[in-house]
Design goal:
- There is one protein chain.
- This protein has one domain (33-116): Ribosomal Protein S5, domain 2 (2-Layer Sandwich).
- Helix 2 crosses helix 3 (100-116).
- The chain contains 3 helices and 4 strands, in the order H-E-E-E-H-E-H.
- With 117 residues, it is an alpha+beta fold.
- It has a 4-stranded mixed β-sheet, with helices on both faces.
- The chain is 38% helix and 20% strand.
Length: 117
């Protein structure tokens, strides 16, 4: 059995504005404690994630920390994410003060909710 990769290559990222817009327009919306997520099946085999953090969250240090936290949670839990799905995460202000384990728990709960519907 193959080793599960914990890398975060470009194939796992949503980078273009059009891709973000497609997920916002056609995806299903899920509310979580630390973020709002939009989920849309994609044509690829890899799960992809896009992260948006607005200036309302804080200064660049807080925004970058929030981005890093979400990216790390996705990277470590990628094996739980269904194949061929695009996820856009909009960070909420409480995430700035959160610790990794809280964000990870919130992400796993979101994946459970998303899988049931």
């Amino acid at each position: 059995m193959g080793e599960i990769s914990e890398k975060f290559p470009k194939t796992n990222r949503i980078l273009k504005r059009d891709s973000f817009k497609r997920v916002y327009d056609g995806g299903r919306k899920f509310q979580a404690r630390y973020f709002t997520a939009f989920v849309l099946p994609n044509s690829g085999s890899e799960p992809r994630i896009g992260i948006t953090v607005t200036r309302k969250i804080g200064k660049s240090v807080q925004r970058n920390r929030a981005r890093r936290l979400v990216r790390e949670v996705f990277r470590k839990n990628k094996w739980l994410v269904p194949q061929g799905v695009d996820i856009v995460i909009n960070v909420k202000k409480p995430l700035v003060e959160a610790v990794y384990s809280d964000v990870e728990g919130d992400f796993r709960n979101f994946l459970e909710k998303a899988g049931k519907k």
